[in-house]
Amino acid sequence: MFSSDWDKFSQLTYETNFGERPHGDIRRLDIATISPFDVLCAGFPCQPFSLAGVSKKNSLGRKHGFEDLKQGNLFFSIRDILKDRRPAAFVLENVKHLYRHDGGNTYKVIYDILANELQYDVHTAIIDAQAVVPQHRERMFIVGFREPRFFEFPEFPMSGPKLGSILDKEVDAKYTLSNHLWKYLQDYAKKHKAAGNGFGFSVFTNNDIARTLSARYHKDGSEILISQGSRKNPRRLTPRECARLMGYPSNFKIPVSDTQAYRQFGNSVVVPVVAKIAKQVVATLSRPVDYKPDFVLTPPETRKRGMIALALPLGYLKISKKTRRLRREPL
Ligand SMILES: C[S@@+](CC[C@H](N)C(=O)[O-])C[C@H]1O[C@@H](n2cnc3c(N)ncnc32)[C@H](O)[C@@H]1O
Fold first, then answer.
1. Atom of ligand 1 nearest to the CA of 25
2. Tens of pLDDT along 294-317?
3. Using CA atoms, how far apart are residues 134 and 212, in angstroms rounded to an integer?
4. Does 285 share its domain with 153?
5. Final residue of a domain: which of 218, 238, 266?
């Protein structure tokens, strides 16, 4: 299986667990060297395509022409691979706000390329991982098929596990916040609360669901602190707890420092969420292209539970005619 990540610590984690070192910079890849594959999966950075993005960068002293920016955008590497190899399907993951990033232009460019230029049958949903792990983490998933097919995103339960299910009972004292950092976070939060800027940190207990783990968690851990009662400062999650928070199995090896591990888990997809989507994609591909269900188990109104059908600005949420016909026919 081909994989790519240019971060050497991410490569080490991947290789330790899967026995294969990922390819480096995806922009310098000879596409012809990728072995045959049926499904392309990618979690890529959310970067602007527009000139507005360029001028912002220029104002920070970076000289970019529009073409440079286009070349530098990792989505174009994904486009080039799809264009060249035309796999049967793809699964792309990004932040929930992709669809309103850069005034909606980023998603518009992505959708136009996938659906119009490459002619894939595109399905989009926002899924909150809290159905399967104790973390509120909304991510956009874009699934595409080379041929229009009947496809439904999997259903997710309305509520899932609580933090108590992933926390260790005994945790090294080094994860407890120092008096200095704890005071700093509280003072900072007070200042910002007074200015009406919301919370600076969040403390959780066993019965809660965590906020989204970010790649910056290693800095101060302030987004997810664990209460240790009133007599002790709160603590951070350990890397192993972060692994569980992202749905990794207990035998997943963590061969890197705490800092790198926090970065990698904060950047990751939630394993059971993508596993469920992948299962559905495989089931879809294993049916005849013109398959039409006799009945649908999940009428649209109940699908809103764990998954929000995405209301995108009109104009570029075009479902191919064939798909629309399949979906609208009386059951
Ligand atoms: C949001 S993370 C996604 C991680 C992982 N693919 C996943 O979905 O769980 C984006 C990743 O892209 C990698 N990356 C950024 N620029 C890259 C490039 N030019 N070539 C390969 N990987 C790159 C980063 O190192 C980072 O790990």
1. 20
2. 766 554 543 433 333 443 333 333
3. 10
4. yes
5. 266
